[in-house]
UniProtKB/TrEMBL annotation:
Residues covered by the AB hydrolase-1 domain: 30-136
Organism in which the protein naturally occurs: Billgrantia gudaonensis
Gene3D superfamilies: alpha/beta hydrolase
Protein's UniProt name: Pimeloyl-ACP methyl ester carboxylesterase
InterPro entries for the chain: AB_hydrolase_1, AB_hydrolase_fold
Lineage: superkingdom: Bacteria
Amino acid sequence: MAAVLRIDTAEGPLHAVRWSPQAAADGVAPIVLLHDSLGCIALWRDFPERLANATRREVIAYDRLGYGKSAPYPGPQPESFIVDEAQHEFDAVREQLNVERFALLGHSVGGSMAAVTAGRYPLACEALITVAAQAFTEPRTLAGIREAERSFIEPGGLSRLAKYHGDKADWVLRSWVDNWHSEAFREWRLDDALTRVRCPTLAIHGELDEYGSREQPARIAALTPGPSEPYLLTDCGHVPHRECPERLIGAIAAFLETQPGANTGSAFDHPPRS
């Protein structure tokens, strides 16, 4: 069962959905999903519902400001957008939905955001799962973005984004392309955020990922608690929740089943200082 929600922020409302499992487990934290650079709730398709039923946990997803059905972003997206998400919009979602403890699952740049958020609230975050996440800038990432950009700027190409983002589609595309090719991202690394993570972490990656080599999940696994090696999905590219959802859900459910959920600190404890 899915409930459509509105999250109020100073910049405008966010669109969110909460899925309840058919048979909920007792005392387990919900899973909060963070989407990729071109993503939104609609592009998760039926993955959240299936994940909720497989894990017996609530699943919450929201469209970031500027994406999907959420309000437009007030101006260009800043180069600090990965860190900003944990400090602003995620806080609003957590507080207004009264989410005390949570597990985080982020796809692509959403995985980078999830890592920052897990480190910001180490007592509240019980588990971190990154899927096709970026831990640093590498040539494959930039080349993949440029190739995708060419397909979107062809006649009619932007309509594929407009289907999900409406008149925000051009902003979504430019935010993705321009930020990753900016001077600020030339030497960008997620290391500082990863070393702040205190919860068990599973780094999942498709072996055929066109936006990142295996060094991306290897870096995440090396700097966070949990399995020291990433979980590689064979014959899978950058979007496992669409390419191989059964295997992805199986890996996530198995990982979460091993977690005791013993982080009992309040989700509203003060975050660590930078």
